[in-house]
């Protein structure tokens, strides 16, 4: 097989495994066939009224039947494309032999064109399509060739008998047949090429849809995996929180036992500390377990799912005191990060529960990661506020930048979901989104009052 032939067959998808879905006959097909039929019959009668069929002796009902059946072929052009294309070719031949003036109407020519185009565009078996369409084209051009041969013979007879003069470069009858040949080459070629283009476009759309489904499925699996990884990390943090609390309770209880007889006040203080530590540990344990009990499909995400963190720290003992190192690590390369820790009382940030301190650190870590990956910002402000003087004390972290979203870098959104999950673990409130004055803000407030 020659290279041009193989490339042509490849263009028509002869060896392609993709099959275009075959829709059932629907409202769209019915409306198209009915509209074409109505317009064709109207055009038929207009031409008849103008005297266009004066050489046609076929009954009117037969003309109506030919036009109506031609339009009806369009009903199954997508469902049975090759059958319709073959029927349209047969229809064209029979109508052309018996009533050529009717067959030449523009409405029927459109029907034949659409039928052939649909055969190329909708055929599922591409090899069968090449055979059927090739046969139709060969038959039609053989018919035209026969007309050309007859036309040449008729021209010779006219010249011999009547001495007709040649006006142009070509004799009159062969010239007329040649025009028909050229017009039909454009006609059939346009239908075949148009059908091929339609099929290739449909294949491209089908592959894009398949890729979209695959990407969505992979994203779902990655999302679930990220959720599980985050829950495992929370479980480790739960272990550390509970282990720390139990260890502290053991130490305080041991101290209370030793001084119970000789220093009751010190024993009471130690037991009070045991009570406070136990309540704090139980509260944090309930929150963490509540998060872990949520289903994977309930919309929770994982911090760190957006990719590499800006700081390599992955320990479970990070807190507000480690933010300075994190900020130093992120600053540079066109990004300036400032850190302010606002405390209403001295060392208030150091007294934060370990779980909340870690949540503040992770929130800043994820927010700075998002700025690096998805924003045009060159300045970021990190503010941590710890207020123990209010009736409802709180710890708040706010990360504000001055950038806009960078095109082509949209993330999965799991990082922000992770921030919300951590906040929910500690009963916090989250405010994430663009600011009216420009830039982007991530703000989370954690209550410091133990809630049962």
Tell me what the structure shows.
- By secondary structure, this protein is of the alpha+beta class.
- It folds into two domains: 3-215, no CATH class; 304-452, 2-Layer Sandwich (Heat Shock Protein 90), CATH 3.30.565.10.
- Helix content is 62%, strand content 9%.
- The chain has twelve helices and five strands.
- The protein has helices spanning 3-11, 27-49, 60-72, 81-98, 100-103, 106-122, 126-162, 172-259, 264-293, 323-330, 354-374, 414-425, and strands spanning 336-343, 379-387, 394-401, 429-434, 440-447.
- A five-stranded mixed sheet has the order 1-2-3-5-4, with helices on one face.
- Strand 4 and strand 5 (440-447) form a beta hairpin.
- Helix 2 packs antiparallel against helix 3 (60-72) and helix 4 packs parallel to helix 7.
- The longest helix has 88 residues, at 172-259.
- The chain is rod-shaped.
Distance between the termini: 81 Å
- Strand fraction band? 5-15%
**Radius of gyration, CA atoms, in whole angstroms:** 41 Å
Give the topology string: H per helix, E per strand.
Answer: HHHHHHHHHHEHEEHEE
Mean pLDDT: 79
What level of helicity do the residues show?
A: 55-70%
Number of helices: 12
Helix vs. strand class: alpha+beta
Oligomer description? single chain
**Tally of individual domains:** 2
Contiguous uncertain segments of 5+ residues: 295-315
Number of strands: 5
* Largest sheet composition: 5 strands, mixed
Give the topology, please.
Blueprint: H1 3-11, H2 27-49, H3 60-72, H4 81-98, H5 100-103, H6 106-122, H7 126-162, H8 172-259, H9 264-293, H10 323-330, E1 336-343, H11 354-374, E2 379-387, E3 394-401, H12 414-425, E4 429-434, E5 440-447
Parallel strand pairs: 1-2
Antiparallel strand pairs: 2-3, 3-5, 4-5
Helix pairs in contact: 2-3, 2-6, 4-6, 4-7, 6-8, 7-8, 8-9, 11-12
